[in-house]
Specification:
Blueprint: E1 2-7, H1 15-23, E2 30-35, E3 46-53, E4 58-65, E5 69-72, H2 80-93, E6 99-100, H3 108-115, E7 128-129, H4 133-143, E8 145-150, E9 160-164, E10 169-174, E11 179-184, H5 187-200, E12 203-207, E13 219-227, E14 233-242, E15 257-260, H6 261-265, H7 270-294, E16 300-307, E17 313-319, H8 325-330, H9 335-362
Parallel strand pairs: 1-2, 1-5, 5-6
Antiparallel strand pairs: 2-3, 3-4, 7-12, 8-9, 8-12, 9-10, 10-11, 13-14, 13-16, 14-15, 16-17
This protein binds adenosine-5'-diphosphate (ADP) and magnesium ion.
Pfam families: ATPgrasp_YheCD
InterPro entries: ATP_grasp_subdomain_1, YheC/D
Organism: Robertmurraya siralis
Length: 363
């Protein structure tokens, strides 16, 4: 019997996803557990978490040893519990007795550094790690509009557009309900504000690109990539996220709406359509293979691609713990597959490790 442990920071998170997955596990001879990394006893390595009972279709409290395969769905913040769990997950990744479905990705800056040395470099907005407030002020003076984003990504939170106009420095950020704007009359005021912001966390700076549609709404193409049971990458689905008029970001947390990719691509002038479609698919086919040359194996990726007014494409963000909302909303027929794919891949990993084990024994 294969044991699959789903790790989360809170047992209330992603209830629907985990339960629907667990309901389908029995037919693959998999038992599903879910737990919080900090609930592992470091001495005994026993875990106080929950096991899914397939007959009653409910999660039940249980004390169990480390499952053989782990599915990491921990979304970290800046708080103590996140830091504690991240350290435990990093320790688990070094253990030979457990395998992760995917080993995750480093922060946005490390990703940029790796990818900027590959064939995907032309699709990356120029990115620098911010080391001082003065650096932001100087780059903004030069580029007129820059975007600041937390190095660790936070689902659209903490993204700032800074604009230099003749008289002012303007800072804008999208909240769920509204856009917050502040103006600074001089450099000193801006620098004071930046000092406080940069004190909280690390940020990256990029040129602000006009990734907007004809209605001045920011939008992007959100794709879900996963490995199949044959260990080949597949583009599971693509959807379009469209933010608010005059907004900055196209994250769902900022109130963006979802629509389907096929209808969107038809809005692109006919002469350009096939070319853009091919270019998007090219990026999505190459990206996971390139990432796995730099980083440990992955199972799934959420990729955000922006398109500027001049039809140029930009890789904005790559998530190794992607949400499923965009794909489920635009392609609901995929829902069954999305609940099964982690189980199928877990099975593949198990078979592979058994084969390696048998080979080692017969060597
Ligand atoms: N350089 C940029 N220029 C213009 N808009 C951007 C830029 N970078 C990101 N955005 C917008 O902000 C959104 C969030 O940025 P992203 O890097 O994906 O951060 P997060 O990790 O918070 O999702 C993007 O989906 C896009 O709409
Ligand atoms: Mg993003």
């Amino acid at each position: 019997m294969l044991t699959l442990g789903i790790m989360t920071l809170n047992l209330e998170n992603e209830q629907g996803y985990f339960t629907e997955m667990a309901k389908r596990a029995e037919k693959y001879n998999i038992t599903c557990f879910r737990f919080i990394p900090s609930d592992i006893n470091p001495q005994s390595e026993m875990i106080r978490g929950e096991e899914f009972d397939c007959n009653q279709e409910i999660w039940k409290h249980k004390l169990f040893p480390l499952p053989s395969i782990l599915y990491d769905r921990c979304f970290y913040g800046e708080d103590f519990h996140s830091k504690q769990c991240k350290a435990i997950v990093d320790w688990l990744k070094t253990k030979k007795s457990v395998q992760f479905l995917g080993y995750g990705l480093p922060n946005k800056h490390k990703l940029y550094e790796a990818l900027s040395r590959t064939s995907l470099a032309p699709y990356l907005p120029k990115t620098v790690k911010i080391t001082s407030s003065e650096m932001v002020q100087q780059l903004c003076q030069k580029m007129k509009r820059v975007i600041l984003k937390p190095i660790n990504g936070s689902q659209g939170n903490g993204i700032y557009l800074i604009e230099k106009t003749d008289k002012f420095w303007k800072v804008k950020t999208d909240k769920t309900e509204y856009q917050a704007t502040r103006s600074f009359a001089n450099e000193m005021q801006l620098i004071n504000w930046l000092d406080r912001l940069l004190h909280k966390k690390e940020f990256l700076l990029q040129p602000y690109l006009p990734l907007i549609n004809e209605f001045n709404q920011p939008f992007d193409i959100r794709s879900l990539l996963q490995k199949t049971e044959l260990e080949e990458w597949s583009i599971v689905g693509k959807g379009i996220r469209t933010g608010k008029i005059n907004g900055i970001i196209s994250n769902l947390s900022a109130g963006a709406s979802v629509s389907d990719f096929d209808s969107w691509i038809k809005t692109i002038p006919f002469q350009k359509r096939a070319f853009i479609n091919d270019e998007i698919n090219d990026i999505l086919e190459n990206l996971p293979l390139i990432l796995e040359q730099f980083f440990p194996p992955l199972f799934e990726l959420g990729v955000d691609i922006g398109m500027a007014e001049d039809y140029s494409l930009w890789i904005l963000d790559i998530n190794s713990k992607p949400g499923r909302k965009v794909v489920l909303h635009s392609l609901p027929e995929l829902s069954d597959y999305l609940y099964e794919s982690p189980l199928l891949y877990a099975n593949t990993l198990l078979k592979r490790s058994q084969l390696t084990h048998e080979k080692t024994l017969s060597d």
